[in-house]
């Protein structure tokens, strides 16, 4: 396929070592822009025209997602019954190629690369988008170890894709979380995939080697989470711990968000400032990190042998070592009984309670999180505990306000947002919008009422969206008809975006299937109108003036 022409593109060479992935370095000839072209396979069970419509809807949404760590999507096209996506051509090599060349990476580099990936996942999850197929093939690392993640598609938590019937590849499934095989992907599934990638960077191999699909998934569910420190001796103990937590088969036991992973990796840099390896930490003198740690594995790696003690002639219970041991055990038991619950235990318990739908559970979680916060900013769990604490306050406030119950704290701003939520429930949207707007200016987004700011901001955005998108099916039908009647290029561009919003908002919602199908059909009609007005598809973009150009779809 090299040196051939595909529409406005000249194929230069194939990218990557995976021959199954059809990704090419190409040049958009007239604009003289280098791009990466990826060709999309359509499942035989999916109608061709529906596939084209779905791809174009994805493009309309994904082009709006911009982040320094994300390979930017330029557009899509159809040429000679081939569907392709055109992306930014990111400099560097895939993480797969990097690992193939170097075997495994130093822990500090793993932390740096992992942090950048987690930062992007945090951004995507905030946009209600997940990656769902994160592998080293899709991570580009440049010479300065700056990362870009490629091959993002429009995946949403717990929702099936339109092409979900595609067969899973074993090498991709090796990075997928166990629940993806049964329940579907979620934010926590992306965290699991990142955990597999961190493990592979540190050890040079996968935690569970590919076998058959069924056996591999059973291993993930049933076998103990493998420890990095069991394979390499230069892994910081806290890095080993966070990777094990990310690989937990139970989603609720993983870090509660990508932001928590970013924070944990930042903290590892501080905790491991002495550069001590996990094995030396485990086998060295007692410290808080090693309490209760089994040293057997570390001693095996170091080649140490356990010395046999000579037997005594007198009864063992009269020996000095035994009596001293008893005293030590008494002291340890007393210390454990008096020792406050660790921040890690408190935080894990609170995170589990926050997964509940019960108000009482949220309040209990808040008490645990408050205890961690009172220990000060030096506590490693201070920041994630603070984030979850205010999330608990926000949920409690909303639950009580929507039920018309008295709010648990009656500050002036709390009373105000309670009234604003009631106005919104009564469909007095203009008054509610005014109140939420005032709150976003009154409340400090980083202060003690940040939960009020966040809720006001979210509800303000929702009202603005609701005022432009009706919920009544008949009104939506009329709106779609009006959007389809436009004739000039500028209006077509705006109508396409509005239709994309309708599809994105109502897709998968009960009673709106006909609306989504109608919007998709109208989207296709608008593309046909646009192609008649601009047959070449190569004129400067009216959709994104900042870019100066765009790729057009060829139906």
How is this structure best summarized?
The protein is of the alpha+beta class. It is 50% helix and 8% strand.
Q: What does the main sheet amount to?
A: 6 strands, antiparallel
Helix-strand makeup class: alpha+beta
Choose one word for the global shape: globular
Tell me, rounded to a whole number, the average pLDDT: 78
Radius of gyration: 28 Å
CATH class term of the largest domain: Mainly Alpha
N to C succession of SSEs: EEEEHEEEHHEEHHHHHHHHHHHHHHHHH
Task: Give the number of domains.
Answer: 4
Strand content: 5-15%
Task: Write the CATH architecture name of the largest domain.
Answer: Orthogonal Bundle
- Indicate the low-confidence ranges by residue numbers: 274-295, 536-555
The strand line-up of the biggest sheet is 1-2-3-4-6-5
Distance between the termini: 22 Å
Q: Let me know the CATH homologous superfamily of the largest domain.
A: Transferase(Phosphotransferase) domain 1
What is the helical fraction, as a range of percent? 40-55%
Number of helices: 20
Q: Give the CATH topology of the largest domain.
A: Transferase(Phosphotransferase), domain 1
Report the oligomer.
single chain
| Beta-strand segment tally | 9
Description:
The strands form two sheets. The protein has a six-stranded antiparallel beta sheet, covered by helices on one side. Strands 7-8-9 form a three-stranded antiparallel beta sheet. With 555 residues, the chain is of the alpha+beta class. It has helices at residues 48-62, 95-102, 107-126, 170-173, 187-203, 213-222, 237-246, 258-271, 278-283, 296-302, 320-338, 343-354, 359-374, 382-403, 412-425, 429-442, 450-468, 473-484, 489-506, 513-533; strands at 5-6, 9-14, 23-28, 33-40, 73-79, 82-88, 93-94, 139-141, 147-149. The model is unreliable at 274-295 and 536-555 (pLDDT under 50). The chain has four domains: 5-88, Phosphorylase Kinase, domain 1 (2-Layer Sandwich); 93-160 and 168-279, Transferase(Phosphotransferase), domain 1; 343-468, no CATH class; 473-533, no CATH class. Helix content is 50%, strand content 8%.
């Amino acid at each position: 396929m090299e040196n051939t022409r595909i529409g406005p593109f000249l194929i230069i060479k194939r990218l990557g070592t995976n021959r199954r992935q059809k990704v090419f370095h190409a040049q958009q000839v007239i604009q003289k822009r280098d791009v990466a072209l990826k060709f999309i396979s359509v499942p035989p069970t999916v109608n061709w025209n529906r596939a084209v419509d779905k791809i174009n809807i994805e493009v309309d949404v994904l082009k709006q997602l911009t982040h320094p760590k994300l390979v930017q999507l330029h557009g899509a096209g159809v040429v000679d019954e081939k569907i392709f996506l055109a992306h930014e051509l990111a400099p560097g090599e895939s993480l797969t190629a990097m690992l193939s060349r170097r075997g495994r990476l130093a822990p500090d580099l793993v932390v740096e690369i992992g942090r950048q990936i987690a930062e992007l996942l945090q951004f995507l999850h905030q946009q209600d988008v997940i990656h769902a197929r994160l592998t080293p093939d899709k991570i580009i690392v440049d010479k300065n170890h700056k990362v870009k993640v490629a091959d993002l598609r429009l995946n949403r938590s717990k929702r099936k894709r339109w092409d979900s019937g595609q067969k899973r590849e074993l090498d991709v499934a090796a990075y997928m979380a166990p629940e993806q095989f049964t329940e579907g992907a979620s934010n926590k599934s992306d965290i699991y995939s990142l955990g597999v990638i961190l493990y592979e960077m540190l050890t040079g191999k996968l935690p569970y080697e590919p076998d058959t699909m069924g056996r591999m998934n059973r291993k993930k569910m049933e076998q103990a989470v493998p420890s990095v420190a069991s394979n390499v001796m230069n892994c910081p103990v806290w890095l080993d711990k966070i990777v094990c937590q990310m690989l937990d088969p139970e989603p609720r036991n993983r870090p509660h968000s990508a932001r928590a992973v970013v924070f944990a990796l930042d903290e590892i840099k501080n905790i491991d400032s002495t550069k001590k390896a996990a094995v030396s930490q485990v086998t060295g003198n007692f410290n808080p990190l090693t309490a209760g740690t089994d040293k057997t594995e570390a001693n095996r790696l170091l080649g140490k042998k356990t010395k046999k003690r000579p037997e005594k002639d007198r009864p063992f219970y009269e020996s000095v070592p035994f009596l001293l041991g008893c005293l030590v055990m008494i002291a340890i038991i007393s210390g454990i009984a008096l020792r406050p619950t660790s921040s890690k235990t408190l935080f894990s318990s609170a995170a589990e309670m926050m997964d509940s739908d019960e108000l009482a559970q949220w309040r209990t979680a808040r008490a645990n999180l408050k205890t961690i916060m009172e220990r000060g900013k030096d506590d490693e769990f201070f920041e994630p505990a603070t984030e979850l604490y205010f999330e608990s306050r926000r949920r409690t406030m909303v639950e009580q306000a929507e039920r018309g119950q008295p709010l648990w704290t009656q500050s002036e701003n709390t009373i105000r947002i309670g009234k604003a939520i009631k106005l919104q429930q009564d469909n007095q949207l203009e008054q509610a919008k005014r109140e939420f707007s005032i709150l976003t200016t009154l409340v400090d987004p980083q202060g003690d009422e940040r939960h009020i700011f966040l809720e006001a901001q979210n509800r303000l955005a929702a009202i603005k969206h609701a005022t432009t998108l009706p919920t009544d099916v008949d009104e939506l039908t009329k709106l779609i008809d009006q959007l389809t009647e436009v004739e000039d290029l500028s209006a077509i561009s705006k109508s396409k975006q509005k239709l994309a919003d309708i599809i994105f908002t109502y897709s998968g919602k009960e009673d709106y299937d006909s609306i989504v199908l109608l919007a998709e059909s109208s989207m296709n009609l608008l593309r046909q109108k646009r192609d008649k007005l601009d047959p070449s598809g190569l004129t400067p973009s009216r959709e994104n003036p900042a870019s100066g150009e765009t790729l057009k779809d060829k139906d």
